[in-house]
Amino acid sequence: MFIFKESCDLQKYLKTQAKQGFSIGFVPTMGALHEGHISLIKAAKRDGGITVASIFVNPTQFNDPDDFKLYPRTIEKDIYMLEKAGCDVLYLPDVKDLYPDGLPANEQYDLGYLETVLDGKYRPGHFQGVCQVVNRLMNAVKPGKLYLGQKDYQQCMVIKKLLSITGSKAEIVICPTLREQDGLAMSSRNMRLTKEQLINATGIYKALIYLKNNIRNNTGAVLKKNAGDILADHNLVPDYIEIADADTLELLNTVQNENQVVALIAAYMGEVRLIDNMIIPLNFVPYGN
Ligand code: PAF
Q1: Which one of 26, 40, 58, 147 would you pick to mutate in the ligand 1 pocket, going by the greatest count of ligand atoms within 8 A of its CB?
Q2: How many other CB atoms are found less than 10 A from the CB of residue 146?
Q3: What is the Å distance from ligand 1's center to 215 Cα?
Q4: CA 198 to ligand 1 centroid distance, Å
Q5: The domain that contains 114 carries what CATH number?
Q6: How far is the CA of 30 from the centre of ligand 1 (A)?
Q7: Is 61 in the pocket of ligand 1 (CB under 6 A)?
Q8: Vertex 153, ends 149 and 154: CA angle to 5°?
Q9: Which of 53, 80, 180, 232 has a 20 to 30 A CA-CA distance from 36?
Q10: Are 171 and 146 in contact (CB under 8 A)?
Q11: Residue with CA closest to ligand 1 atom 3
């Protein structure tokens, strides 16, 4: 695997590959890799061409400085995992390479409604930071396909919007969330949890399963209350428990037959904020307010 720390070297290399007709599949990450990330690398490899991963813990997307400081960093293990998965190129920039003019205070993207709900509401500025870094990474890598994980459901929609704003033709490939055997969604943040917290963190998955199984028979208020009780039983403190239209993220209190919906939860386990979601298939019976 080639490792490039500077975008000029990365671009030179990728240009020679493009000239030989290779397409580029890109997996952007913040490191602390787990099997969920590796499943994205594998998906990119299956599609052929050159697989490029990036590792950069982007300061502009952390609305909480402690969260940035404590974000797990496991670079040697990450490199080992990427090599083992057959990743071709790792882009490993520092802050200066991606933000040569300093952190962009005024670079704003019009994300509209998407930035007003869920993580947009609870993490002010977070998605602007995601867009700032993803735009820079896209300019450096210029991929034909961008591989993202469904666990970051709203982020996938934000990045889709970013690509339409910037006129990028790259195709987004969304890959399913990988889970531990007990259902806990794989996440770099899980590395910050104690053994006991890891067990309790499965409460998020249990609450999502509850929502999925009971959405036909209950009101929105009852669903949220009962899901909230499941979280509380597991020492989880929610930022939100929501059911939303899967295409628009419009928050729903009642669900029509034709809505494909997604249940989304963000909750704290101690100091660590975890998110997860579950798409609930079409054709279920509506529930009232
Ligand atoms: O999902 C992530 O790991 C990050 O938000 C991303 C897309 C790599 C941007 O920093």
Answers
A1: 58
A2: 26
A3: 31
A4: 22
A5: 3.40.50.620
A6: 6
A7: yes
A8: 130
A9: 232
A10: yes
A11: 29
Domain of 199, in residue numbers: 188-277
Residues 43 and 141 in one domain: yes
Q: How many domains does the chain have?
A: 2
State the burial class of residue 167 (Cβ atoms within 10 Å of its Cβ: 0-12, 13-18, 19+). exposed
Examine residue 226 and state whether it is found in any structural domain, yes or no.
Answer: yes
Q: Are residues 206 and 156 in the same domain?
A: no
In a domain, 182, yes or no: no
Tokens 């949890």 sit at which residue? 193
Q: Do residues 108 and 238 both lie within one domain?
A: no
Indicate the top mutation candidate among 103, 109, 146, 155 to test ligand 1's pocket, ranked by most ligand atoms within 8 A of CB: 155
Q: Tens-digit pLDDT profile for the chain (289 aa)?
A: 999 999 999 999 999 999 999 999 999 999 999 999 999 999 999 999 999 999 999 999 999 999 999 999 999 999 999 999 999 999 999 999 999 999 998 899 999 999 999 999 999 999 999 999 999 999 999 999 999 999 999 999 999 999 999 999 999 999 999 999 999 999 999 999 999 999 999 999 999 999 998 887 778 899 999 999 999 999 999 999 999 999 999 998 877 666 789 999 999 999 999 999 999 976 644 443 3
Q: Whose CA is nearest to atom 9 of ligand 1?
A: 130
Rg, the chain, Cα only: 19
Residue 34 falls in the annotated catalytic set: no
Q: Which residue has tokens 């007990």? A: 182
Atom of ligand 1 nearest to the CA of 149: 1
User: 26 and 160 share a domain?
Assistant: yes
Q: Which two tokens stand for residue 2?
A: 């080639």
Phi (first) and psi of residue 16, to 5 degrees: -65, -35
Q: Tell me if 201 sits within 8 A of 269, measured CB to CB.
A: yes
| Same domain? 17 vs 135 | yes
**Residues 34, 37, 126, 234: which is the catalytic one?**
37
